[in-house]
Design brief:
Radius of gyration of chain A: 21 Å
Strand order of the largest sheet of chain A: 1-2
Number of strands of chain C: 0
Strand content of chain A: under 5%
Main location (chain C): membrane
Protein name (chain C): Multisubunit sodium/proton antiporter, MrpC subunit
Helix content of chain C: over 70%
Order of helices and strands of chain C: HHH
CATH architecture of chain C: Orthogonal Bundle
Shape of chain A: globular
Number of helices of chain C: 3
Family (chain C): Belongs to the CPA3 antiporters (TC 2.A.63) subunit C family.
Chains: A mainly alpha (487), B mainly alpha (497), C mainly alpha (107)
Subcellular location (chain C): Cell membrane
Membrane topology (chain C): Multi-pass membrane protein
Largest sheet of chain A: 2 strands, antiparallel
Structural class of chain A: mainly alpha
Oligomer: heterotrimer
Largest interface: A-C, 43 and 44 residues
Number of domains of chain A: 2
Distance between the termini of chain A: 21 Å
Strand content of chain C: under 5%
Number of strands of chain A: 2
Chain lengths: 487, 497, 107
């Protein structure tokens, strides 16, 4: 059973990608709907399997490490797989209707989409450092392609910036992998974690850790390496922006988090951990400030991503030098933050796309009066905003609560100020959008009404981010599922 | 699912579902929307009534489930909860009727009534919250659902008022969150329990507990319009009259005051709070707010702004009652929760009627309105006298109880505050009443006529009902089902273990 | 100096040159070449330094092969984008004199 599921997970997206290359946009869209259903079945099936039998290691084609590729399917991995399915399906359905099918380059959308999905799946279940590198590269190249697709000079400029940043990040990561292989002779993350605890002088591995973290931070757009993100996410088509902000940046973060959780305790220092946290805090402040200043709607949302990514990096100081229960609280908080941000941000970008389509204009102040006309999308935007602000009863609040508890328990009370203050700062730019939409104008506006289905997708994602707030415990229970030991 | 769990959930869901349905309705389906609104309001009143009956007979309505590791979502219907829930449910019904009449022919009614229902759902949640976490959940939901109501008109002034409102309330929410997380770190997930439980904690933690108290009261004090956190309230008057009525009589300010009551009685416990020494400063702050609000009210020329500052002043009676240690003081504060609600909503309903029928916004325009709109003006007069504290109206009962309670614990200065504030109330209400009845008619430029009645029937009945209630709760205060008796019941359960 | 160490040092020097080039050079094709240089440097370190068991170790070689393939794909993508960008704007540099990968001019 697990064989079929793993095959479905990894190879179907690749197969769909190559098949879509032969088809045009409309045919690719029909195929994509089929693929989404398939992925949903596979993800749910895997979750059920892990729930029943616990997590497991899976060697591709039966070849063991170090030459073979070993995958790790645990509770966290299946949660993210399911999240990817949900968000990517939503964005894909939205894109199928939003994008104009007649442009000649549009047929490359589906192949790039499926390559992206394949890369994401690879990263979530990767157990081997080099395999993670391949997954990362696949994601980056597909993402760059999606940003550039059919765009004008602005989009190409953003795509090029993104490409250069992403490649640099990957190279730094790869160098770190090289150093690790040189030291330990293995690439399996579990094995490396095991070995590094047995080392006499684990500090020797610090350069490798730093390289990898810097490379991954660049790919996740942590302050001050965030420069490539706002152009890329702001200029790309809305469904693409949604995918990028929701899932792509989380992949590199996921790897950084896994490495830190396995090996950070012995290799890094308290200074490093606090520094990363401080950079995260700076990202929250800087990103929120810039989001508040932006005249264009999608740029507001893009800078908001920069700010929200900052919260994620609070994982590092909150899991270093603390006891196990606090560390678990921090991990749970970050997991909820990843999921809620993915749902909320994708909802926000899709809703923003609908609003821009209706108003015909990218600017925030052009939104006046849209609440009569497109209340559904505005409401989705609003709900997503609630999650970003970390207000109850959303998933964003659940995440914030767990992180607050972890900060309290670990004695690192200064992160409490960052979390609470960050919420207020995000309220500034979210309410700026609300305000612009409530304004009544006397002039008659000519609004174009987008397809209903576009609005429904955005609303579903927004409601999901809200539902996360009420079902937090259930989602987290998957993380705690038992896992078989290394063979 | 047992009846004990189902009824609280239904009480919440009734308005949430109403909100969802109303949002989905097209703008033109007025009658359907009105029908749904009224039906939901009636259902809620019935459910609250059922729960109240159960609480009297010591039934245990409520539920608890773990929403996040380490903290649970708790609903709990105790006597205090039912007092607030009862107020909300009954006044919501009346305000809905009023709002339907008020907003006739205006745009965006689906949006308005949708958020209106969410607002009441949040208030019900605040009433029924069984621990601080659940309270906070609904408290912030209230902030979010009231913003669209404040900015409903979409004018620059409305948006500016909304912006200030949000700055104040979200900052308050942040303070509340800080206090909450700190307390959670010290004492774990605490439910609201009569007589509180923090007294068992270590002595060394007392300074921290004091700081937490300050944070919690600051966070709650924003909505309760305690000085100096009251700034948002007068500005929010730019909202339509039903919003002012609901917000300032029922939902927002009462939520803040209710929260302070919960924190002092059911989280800290009245004896422990007195031990920590936080009650006296709270009392002083409340007293200052009472006087300050009244003084500012005197200076106002706009009718609604005068009523707004009057609210600032009056809600602090509740806080003052909380700070006056002793059962009688407690009763005084608690009963004012209901009394002020009834009286203030009457005043705002009447203000709305004057605005809609005669275009009156300023006080000097009220000259002679008594002849033109006698029923509304009678209601206004009754409520105003109640505020001043004229027996046997509701306000008198409150002040008498508070005064007695203060005497019992040798806090004589409270009596001074009560006297001064009554004088000030008289100073800013009596001229208005004089203008209504004894001045020649003002030349009103915008007038609307509704056949034989002085104003739209749906605008007329609610204030009449609440004005009569003002009279009744005062006259029959000694009866078993009056607000006073209910407050005594709560106090009894609080002081005796 | 042992061979692995020599390889490692060369790799580091090349990495540094590549990084300087990526950040300092303006022409897009040159940036891309700098990235390739960084890639080659990494591969050099991988093959040279990470030799285990004092003999030909197949794993790093496999990794480098994969890396080269990925690098080709990335470079190809980069070249296509640069060509299209040039076609649309006539520029060979990213606008506003920005350094390209790390710095952002606030809009």
């Amino acid at each position: 059973m697990s064989n079929w599921l793993m095959a479905g997970l990894l190879f179907t997206p690749l197969a769909l990608a190559t098949t879509s290359l032969l088809l045009n946009f409309r045919q690719g869209r029909a195929l994509a709907w089929l693929g989404m259903v398939l992925q949903l079945l596979v993800s749910v099936g895997l979750r059920g399997l892990v729930k029943q039998e616990g997590g497991f290691y899976y060697s591709l084609a039966g070849w063991d490490a170090p030459l073979g590729i070993e995958l790790r399917v645990d509770g966290l991995a299946v949660t993210f797989l399911l999240l990817t399915t949900l968000v990517a399906s939503g964005c894909g359905i939205h894109a199928g209707i939003y994008l104009k099918p007649d442009k000649p380059w549009q047929r490359y959308f589906w192949p790039l989409y499926w390559f992206l999905w394949a890369g994401l799946n690879t990263v979530w279940i990767g157990g081997d450092l080099f395999n993670l590198y391949v997954g990362l590269e696949l994601i980056s190249l597909a993402a760059v392609g999606l940003v550039a697709l059919g765009g004008q000079a602005e989009a190409l400029r953003a795509a090029l910036r993104y490409l250069l940043a992403a490649l640099l990040g990957s190279m730094a990561y790869l160098l770190g992998v090289a150093l690790i292989y040189g030291q330990f002779g293995t690439l399996s993350l579990a094995e490396v974690a095991h070995q590094v605890r047995l080392m006499d002088q684990a500090e020797l591995m610090r350069p490798a850790l730093v390289l990898m973290l810097v490379g991954l931070a660049l790919k996740t757009a942590l302050f001050p390496l965030h420069g490539w993100l706002p152009p890329a996410h702001g200029i790309a088509k809305s469904p693409v922006s949604a995918l990028l902000s929701a899932l792509v940046v989380k992949a590199s973060f996921y790897i950084a988090a896994r490495i830190w959780l396995e090996a950070g305790e012995v290799v890094a220092t308290q200074w490093m951990a606090q520094l990363i946290g401080a950079l995260g805090a700076a990202a929250v402040i800087w990103g929120s400030w810039l989001a508040w200043c932006q005249p264009r709607l999608k740029q507001v949302v893009a800078y908001s991503s920069v700010a929200q990514i900052g919260y994620l990096f609070l994982l590092f100081p909150l899991t270093f030098g603390v006891d196990a229960s606090t560390s678990l609280q921090a991990q749970q908080g970050i997991t909820l933050q990843v999921i809620s941000h993915a749902l909320a941000k994708s909802a926000m970008f899709l809703a923003a796309g609908n609003l821009i389509l209706a108003v015909g204009n990218n600017r925030v102040d052009a939104l006046a009066g849209v609440s009569h006309f497109l209340p559904f999308s505005l409401f989705s935007f609003g709900l997503a905003g609630v999650s970003l602000m970390g207000l109850p009863p959303s998933g964003g609040f659940a995440a914030k609560w767990m992180l607050l508890q972890a900060s309290m328990a670990s004695g690192q009370w200064w992160w409490i100020l960052v979390l609470v203050g960050g919420g207020l700062l995000s309220a500034a730019y979210v309410f700026r959008i609300y305000r612009a939409s409530f304004l009544e104008r006397d002039e008659k506006d000519h609004f174009y009404h987008p397809d209903r289905r576009l609005e429904v997708v955005a609303m579903l994602l927004a409601v999901a981010s809200l539902g996360l707030g009420l079902a937090g415990s259930q989602v987290l229970s998957v993380m705690a599922l038992p896992f078989e030991e290394v063979q | 699912m047992t009846q004990l769990v189902l009824i609280p959930i239904l009480a919440l869901l009734s308005s949430m579902l109403a909100a969802v349905i109303i949002f989905a309705l097209p703008e033109q389906r007025h009658r359907l929307r009105t029908g749904i609104n009224l039906l939901a309001a009636l259902i809620k009143v019935v459910l609250v009534g059922v729960m109240t009956w159960g609480v009297i007979h010591q039934l245990d309505y409520g539920l608890s489930y773990e929403i996040l590791p380490g903290v649970s979502f708790e609903l709990q219907a105790d006597a205090l909860a039912m007092m607030f829930a009862g107020l909300s449910a009954v006044l919501w019904l009346l305000t809905t009727i009023y709002a339907v009449g008020y907003l006739e022919d205006s745009p965006n009614r689906s949006r308005f009534f949708g958020f209106f229902s969410l607002c009441v759902a949040s208030t019900m949640g605040i009433a029924l919250a069984g621990n601080l976490f659940t309270f906070f959940l609904f408290y912030e939901m209230l902030t979010l659902s009231t913003y669209p109501l404040v900015v409903h008109r979409g004018t620059e002034k409305a948006l500016q008022a909304g912006r200030n409102y949000i700055i104040y309330t979200l900052s308050g929410g942040a303070a509340l969150l800080l206090g909450m997380i700190w307390l959670q770190g010290l004492a774990g997930d605490l439910s609201f329990q009569e007589t509180g439980q923090l007294v068992d904690l270590n002595e060394e933690l007392h300074p921290q507990l004091i700081m937490i108290f300050v944070l919690l009261v600051a966070g709650l004090g924003v909505k309760a319009a305690l000085f100096p956190l009251h700034g948002w309230l007068p500005q929010a008057m730019v909202a339509p009259a039903p919003v002012s009525a609901l917000l300032h009589a029922v939902a927002v300010v009462k939520a803040g005051a209710f929260g302070i009551v919960r924190v002092v009685y059911d989280l800290y416990g009245i004896e422990f709070a007195a031990l920590l020494g936080v009650l006296e400063p709270l009392g002083w702050l409340a007293a200052f707010t009472i006087i300050y609000g009244s003084v500012r009210a005197l200076a106002q020329t706009d009718l609604k702004r005068r009523l707004a500052f009057s609210t600032v002043s009056q809600v602090s009676y509740i806080v003052l009652g909380t700070a006056v240690f002793g059962p009688v003081g407690t009763v005084g504060g608690l009963v004012h929760l209901l009394h002020q609600g009834i009286m203030k909503i009457t005043l705002f309903f009447c203000a709305g009627n004057y605005a809609e029928t005669l275009g009156i916004h300023k006080i000097h325009e009220l000259n002679g309105a008594g002849k033109r709109m006698p029923l509304t003006s009678t209601a206004f007069t009754l409520a105003a006298f109640g505020m001043i504290g004229v027996p046997p109206l509701a306000g008198f009962i409150t002040k008498w109880t508070l005064g007695t309670g203060a005497l019992n614990v040798q806090m004589e200065w409270v009596i001074g505050v009560l006297l001064i504030s009554s004088l000030l109330n008289a100073a800013y209400f009596l001229p208005v009443i004089h203008r209504l009845w004894f001045q020649p008619e003002y030349d009103w430029s915008e007038q609307r006529r509704w056949g034989k009645l002085e104003t739209h029937s749906w605008l007329l009945w609610p204030p009449l009902v609440t004005a009569v209630l003002t009279l009744l709760v005062g006259l029959f205060a000694a009866l078993p089902f009056s607000p006073l008796s209910w407050a005594k019941l709560i106090a009894a359960r609080e002081y005796l273990p | 100096m042992s061979t692995p160490l020599l390889y490692a040092l060369t790799g580091v020097v090349l990495w540094g040159i590549g990084l300087l080039g990526l950040v300092g050079l303006r022409h897009l094709l040159r940036k891309l070449l700098a990235l390739n240089l960084i890639g080659s440097a990494t591969f050099l370190i991988l093959v040279g330094l990470a030799q285990h068991h004092n003999g030909p170790d197949p794993v790093p070689q496999a990794l480098v092969l994969t890396g080269i393939v990925v690098s080709i794909a990335a470079t190809a993508l980069g070249v296509v984008l640069i060509r299209r960008y040039f076609h649309l704007t006539g520029c060979t540099e990213l606008g506003n004199g920005a350094e390209g990968s790390k710095e952002d001019r606030a809009p």
